Amino acid sequence: MSTDSVIKNFDTWKSFLGKRVIQAEKMGMNDETISKLAFEIGEFLDKKVDPANTSNRAIKELWDVGNDAEKHTIATLMVKLAKENA
């Protein structure tokens, strides 16, 4: 599955991210480290990927208006959401 197709479908994105989170936990990463990585991924996606659906667009708009602390909160919530959908 290509990264492009994963990002276009929000449910697929949640499942993909959730599986990566579970893998990271199995490798011994703690929640704080995973959330920091999610923040870095969010920063990358914000700069490099045009949201392909309304769900991703809404998250991008929230990301764009948030300060760093709020962005970290969004990243942490996305990790939790993804884990529930893995």
What would you note in describing this structure?
There is one protein chain. 12% of the residues are buried. It is globular, with a radius of gyration of 12 Å. Helix content is 81%, strand content 0%. The protein has one domain (3-84): Cytochrome Bc1 Complex, Chain D, domain 2 (Orthogonal Bundle), CATH 1.10.760. The chain has five helices and no strands. It has 86 residues and is an all-alpha fold. It starts with a helix and ends with a helix. The model has no long low-confidence stretch (mean pLDDT 86). The longest helix has 18 residues, at 31-48.
Highlighted features:
0% strand, Cytochrome Bc1 Complex, Chain D, domain 2
Query: Do you know the CATH architecture?
Result: Orthogonal Bundle
Distance between the termini: 16 Å
CATH fold naming: Cytochrome Bc1 Complex, Chain D, domain 2
| Integer-rounded radius of gyration | 12 Å
Pfam families: DUF3243
Protein name: DUF3243 domain-containing protein
InterPro entries: DUF3243, Uncharacterised_YmfJ, YmfJ/YflH_sf
Organism: Paenibacillus donghaensis
Topology:
Layout lengths: L2 H6 L1 H17 L4 H18 L5 H12 L2 H17 L2
Give me a quick take on this structure.
81% of the residues lie in helices and 0% in strands. The chain is mostly helical and 86 residues long.
